[in-house]
Write a structure and sequence with these properties.
Number of domains: 2
Radius of gyration: 19 Å
Structural class: mainly alpha
Oligomer: single chain
Shape: elongated
Order of helices and strands: HHHEEH
């Protein structure tokens, strides 16, 4: 039986990548479930991501402001990832929490 070829539009690719990001599945698992080759998803992700300057990691730094509260709230760090995911670290040891987040996301785009 001859192989069927499908032409994917940019909108299709963006929709599929958004579905994968929100699915909670790994790229491999999602690709298998949807019948799409994982390399196609990797190429789409590479081509459709926002351009960043050479050497940039896609990380945006923002100024953190401390505010007084009564009773004092525990320290809190909130990260908004380009993929739409949000990571929140709450507690006294933000350094260890941030280290864990950075280690967990080192090989992904958050």
């Amino acid at each position: 039986m001859p192989r069927q070829w499908r032409r994917w539009s940019k909108a299709d690719a963006k929709r599929v990548l958004a579905e994968q990001a929100s699915s909670g599945l790994s790229l491999q698992e999602f690709a298998q479930r949807e019948g799409i080759h994982p390399e196609r998803l990797r190429r789409w992700r590479s081509r459709l991501q926002d351009p960043t300057p050479t050497g940039a990691t896609g990380v945006r730094l923002v100024e953190l402001l401390a505010r007084a509260s009564t009773p004092p709230e525990p320290p809190r760090l909130l990260l908004h990832c380009p993929t739409g995911h949000t990571v929140e670290v709450v507690g006294a040891d933000l350094v260890e929490g941030l280290r864990a987040v950075l280690t967990a996301t080192a090989s992904t785009s958050c």
